[in-house]
Amino acid sequence: MVLNKLTNDEFEDIRYSYYSQGDPGFGFEKDEKGNYKFPLTRLPHPYSVIIGEDVEIGSFTVIHRGRWRDTVIKRGTKIDSLVHVAHNVVIGEDCLIVAGTVLGGSCTIGNKCQIGMNVSIMQGVTIAHNVTIGMGSVVRHDIWEENTTWAGNPCRKIAEVQKNL
After folding, report:
1. Which of 21, 36, 133, 155 has its CB surrounded by the most CB atoms within 10 Å?
2. 90 to each of 50, 72, 95, 135, how far by Cα in Å?
3. pLDDT digits (tens, 9 = 90+) for 105-123
């Protein structure tokens, strides 16, 4: 398989082995009503995975390349083992993402976010800067308020956090 523009600013900053980067996303053709066409046919995912400096990626993490934009993990972000980063996801700088987290396709995560263990973030969701999401939360809608803490299923705001972290 040939991967388009698969880049790492500094490959040696990726600390762990046995992770998957650059496979096509899990997108399939649909008809004009939004129903899947059968037999299922995977859509092309021509964009890349771009990983910034000082990023750490844990073992058995999966990062899919993009369909309509690059999948990007920005500088200083640390991703634990067993995390799924779907196609078109953009993760900001200095984020911490703990094991078992699933980031649905086309999510955008702001800078300095902390995402707890086994969090599920639905496709297309945007998370503001400096947001903390508690363990096991299910995020089904955008979170636009910076410097806040959210938890639960469905995810709800539970606290304001210090703005100068």
Report:
1. 133
2. 9, 5, 11, 21
3. 999 999 999 999 999 999 9
